[in-house]
Specification:
Number of helices: 9
Number of strands: 10
Helix content: 25-40%
Number of domains: 2
Strand order of the largest sheet: 6-7-8-3-9-10
Bound molecules: adenosine-5'-diphosphate, magnesium ion
Oligomer: single chain
Strand content: 25-35%
Radius of gyration: 18 Å
Distance between the termini: 36 Å
Order of helices and strands: EEEHEEHEHHHEHEHEEHH
Structural class: alpha/beta
């Protein structure tokens, strides 16, 4: 079953055609990687899925619902969660509070902070948050102020903030960017573990080791265009893909 159908999406920034008639379908339960040189339009495409950008033309259908024109929180309510290219966590709050916020937002459509700047306590939500911290191996740090953690742990926390919402579709924009090899491998393991829950994932990634470890399908974007699609093995051998990376000055 197709869970995400992207048809004829165009997006122009002034004189730049950032997305040029993009078509993409993602099968439920798959890990679908989007790769391509810097500036290809990968983040722009993801921004069109989550309501941060409105395409000029085209459609984005998720699980039978058109996402275009919906606000980010409305898209989130349909079951789409996203990990950003740089971690977006609440640095002043504890890990536990960081997890309770998205859990509350998903359940109630909103959250409030009390007079002490803390998340209002709610037994059910707290339980959910505690379990999630265990799942990602951060339970020992749950009362730490999040801003004091390593970059790898911040990314792990951000992933947990998405997962605590029980998404049907998880969007990841370069989840291993700037990570050490060890942190990258931890992230791969974590994403594999999540895979067992059947969450569909769209992952933008420049690290081919990550793509080969996780993806079933790969779409290659270059200059706003999907130039090739197939299995990771097929894409590795595809001359169009090699040319696109060479043309962009990559190895
Ligand atoms: P990628 O994620 O594949 O590296 P992006 O989607 O970030 O590429 O960018 C695609 C192109 O669109 C780049 O040339 C970038 O400079 C341009 N671009 C991205 N966002 C904007 C914006 N908000 N305004 C103008 N140009 C933008
Ligand atoms: Mg990008």
């Amino acid at each position: 079953m197709k869970i995400l159908e992207v048809s004829n999406v165009n997006k122009r920034f002034g004189g730049l055609q950032a997305l040029d008639d993009v078509n993409l379908t993602v099968e439920q339960g798959h890990v679908h990687a989007i790769i391509g040189p810097n500036g290809a339009g990968k983040s722009t495409l993801l921004n069109c899925f989550v309501g941060r950008l409105m395409p000029d033309t085209g459609s984005v259908i998720f699980d039978g619902t058109s996402l275009l024109g919906l606000a980010p929180h409305e898209i989130n309510q349909t079951g789409v969660s996203r990990v950003f290219q740089t971690p977006e966590i609440f640095e002043d709050l504890s890990l536990l509070d960081n997890l309770m916020i998205p859990a509350l937002a998903k359940r109630d459509g909103a959250f409030t902070l009390n007079a002490w700047g803390r998340v209002d306590q709610d037994a059910e939500i707290r339980d959910q948050a505690e379990h999630m911290l265990e799942d990602v191996g951060l339970q020992d740090k749950r009362h730490l102020q999040s801003g004091t953690m390593s970059r790898g742990d911040k990314r792990r926390l951000e992933l947990a903030m998405c997962l605590v919402q029980n998404p049907k579709l998880l969007l990841l924009d370069e989840p291993t960017a700037g990570m050490s090899r060890a942190d990258t491998n931890n992230t791969i393991d974590l994403l594999k573990k999540i895979g067992e829950r059947g969450i569909t994932k769209v992952i933008i990634e420049h690290d081919m080791h990550v793509v080969f470890s996780l993806a079933n399908r790969v779409s290659v974007l270059a200059q706003g265009h999907v130039i090739a699609e197939g299995t990771p093995e097929e894409m590795k051998e595809d001359q169009r893909v090699k040319d696109a990376y060479l043309g962009a000055g990559h190895e």
